[in-house]
């Protein structure tokens, strides 16, 4: 990738083309449970390079506002969340969830003139979302399938990742790596056991890809050898600009990720498991809470993975040598994060050498760059229509003569259909 395009894609601040593009979408900001109760302590939030404060007012309304008071620039993290707003501890100026100054004790007649930046918020799928773009261009709320199922049917987590959002997201749409970095864990993890998929992924490490550009982004068809008369297909969805839906393994839950820039050199990596038609099994739900599957164990009191760059991701060379772990790193998400973080905060894209199995990455970059460049000319971004997000990933065995694209047209867009999984 040339340096101009790389710069375009990795810079996400308010005045950058990619930052402007991202702000046209509802942005996942935090778990709604982080501001669980009215008048709870405010929480610092940095997203797309902006320093903000999240809080829930006395009436239970969530707010996302500028971290700093309009008076002297004091952080409202030190403020008091009380009586319908966040009050600065320095001089008592108080702001509502809409950023409007509610009280200015020293000069009350100026209150109507004072405000701080604020963003509309909604709660959906256990996540607090904010719209950070032009108010007259606000799209419909997201309708990703996992957002719409009952709370008992899903589990959502997030983790801090020390890398730019693009290289993290590209790991999410690169399905060939499962044959390598995850190969020894597939039969051990509780969300991947008893799946015929494991043997196909291990046996055929050279997946062949067909990729379709769609209203939601990309549908990625990865074909491996199945049985003598069949192919094993893993069908991944990339939903513009930062969502992925990953195929399930056997009878286990479907999965998904979101990759949201904190700034240009770090991101929130979200992981979601869900079942469309029933609650998550108790044993799998407990395993998710313990950081297994695509979730992680944390440093207590944080969203920082216990295994992280500061401790070399707790790589176990003995486990690696004994073939207990291909990379020596424990856990699917930390395995992925270790590789993406090892590239540096922002990958040097000029040194990469992409091959045929990287076609999805190339196409996603082109879509992102095209949308960012065309936005100033008035073009609408892809996937703003919430209905376009109603797609599903799948893993399936099909006859060798069957076309996966034809099978997927109905099976993966009509969400009343059953889950297909091998």
Automatic annotation (TrEMBL):
<keyword id="KW-0001">2Fe-2S</keyword>
<dbReference type="InterPro" id="IPR036922">
    <property type="entry name" value="Rieske_2Fe-2S_sf"/>
</dbReference>
<dbReference type="InterPro" id="IPR017941">
    <property type="entry name" value="Rieske_2Fe-2S"/>
</dbReference>
<dbReference type="InterPro" id="IPR050584">
    <property type="entry name" value="Cholesterol_7-desaturase"/>
</dbReference>
<dbReference type="InterPro" id="IPR015881">
    <property type="entry name" value="ARHD_Rieske_2Fe_2S"/>
</dbReference>
<dbReference type="GO" id="GO:0018620">
    <property type="term" value="F:phthalate 4,5-dioxygenase activity"/>
</dbReference>
<feature type="domain" description="Rieske">
    <location>
        <begin position="26"/>
        <end position="130"/>
    </location>
</feature>
<dbReference type="GO" id="GO:0005506">
    <property type="term" value="F:iron ion binding"/>
</dbReference>
<protein>
    <submittedName>
        <fullName>Phthalate 4,5-dioxygenase oxygenase subunit</fullName>
        <ecNumber>1.14.12.7</ecNumber>
    </submittedName>
</protein>
<keyword id="KW-0408">Iron</keyword>
<dbReference type="Pfam" id="PF19301">
    <property type="entry name" value="LigXa_C"/>
</dbReference>
<dbReference type="InterPro" id="IPR045623">
    <property type="entry name" value="LigXa_C"/>
</dbReference>
<keyword id="KW-0411">Iron-sulfur</keyword>
<keyword id="KW-0479">Metal-binding</keyword>
<dbReference type="GO" id="GO:0051537">
    <property type="term" value="F:2 iron, 2 sulfur cluster binding"/>
</dbReference>
<keyword id="KW-0560">Oxidoreductase</keyword>
<keyword id="KW-0223">Dioxygenase</keyword>
<dbReference type="Pfam" id="PF00355">
    <property type="entry name" value="Rieske"/>
</dbReference>
């Amino acid at each position: 990738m040339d340096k101009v395009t790389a710069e375009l894609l990795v810079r996400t601040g308010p005045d950058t083309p990619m930052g402007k593009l991202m702000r046209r979408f509802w942005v996942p900001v935090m778990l709604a449970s982080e501001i669980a109760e009215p008048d709870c302590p405010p929480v610092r939030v940095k997203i797309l390079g902006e320093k903000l404060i999240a809080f829930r007012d006395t009436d239970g309304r969530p707010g996302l506002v500028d971290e700093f008071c309009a008076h002297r620039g004091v952080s409202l993290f030190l403020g008091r969340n009380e009586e319908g707003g966040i009050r600065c501890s320095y001089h008592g100026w108080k702001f509502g969830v809409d950023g409007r100054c509610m009280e200015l004790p020293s000069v009350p007649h100026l209150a109507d003139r004072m405000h701080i930046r604020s963003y509309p918020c909604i709660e959906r799928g256990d996540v607090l979302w904010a719209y950070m773009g032009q108010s007259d261009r606000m799209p419909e709320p997201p309708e990703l399938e996992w957002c719409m199922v009952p709370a008992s049917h899903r589990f959502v987590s997030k983790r801090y990742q020390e890398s730019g959002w693009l290289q993290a997201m590209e790991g999410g749409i690169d399905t060939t790596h499962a044959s390598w970095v995850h190969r020894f864990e597939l039969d051990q993890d509780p969300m991947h056991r008893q799946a015929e998929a494991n043997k196909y992924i291990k046996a055929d490490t050279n997946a062949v890809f067909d990729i379709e550009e769609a209203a939601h982004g990309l549908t990625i068809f990865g074909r491996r050898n199945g049985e003598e008369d069949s192919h094993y297909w893993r069908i991944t969805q990339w939903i513009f600009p930062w969502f992925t839906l990953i195929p399930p393994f056997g009878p286990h839950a479907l999965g998904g990720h979101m990759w949201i820039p904190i700034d240009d050199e770090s991101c929130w990596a979200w992981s979601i498991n869900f079942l469309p038609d029933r609650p998550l099994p108790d044993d799998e739900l407990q395993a998710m809470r313990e950081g297994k599957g695509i979730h992680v164990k944390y440093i207590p009191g944080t969203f920082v993975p216990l295994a992280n760059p500061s401790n070399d991701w707790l790589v176990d060379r003995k486990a690696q040598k004994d073939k207990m772990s291909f990379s020596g790193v424990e856990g699917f998400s930390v395995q992925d994060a270790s590789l993406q973080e090892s590239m540096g905060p922002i990958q040097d894209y000029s040194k990469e050498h992409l091959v045929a199995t990287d076609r999805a990455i190339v196409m996603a970059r082109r879509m992102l760059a095209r949308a960012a460049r065309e936005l100033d000319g008035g073009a609408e971004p892809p996937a703003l229509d919430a209905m376009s997000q109603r797609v599903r990933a799948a893993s399936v065995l099909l006859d060798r003569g069957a076309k996966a694209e034809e099978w997927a047209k109905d099976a993966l867009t009509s969400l009343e259909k059953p889950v297909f999984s091998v």
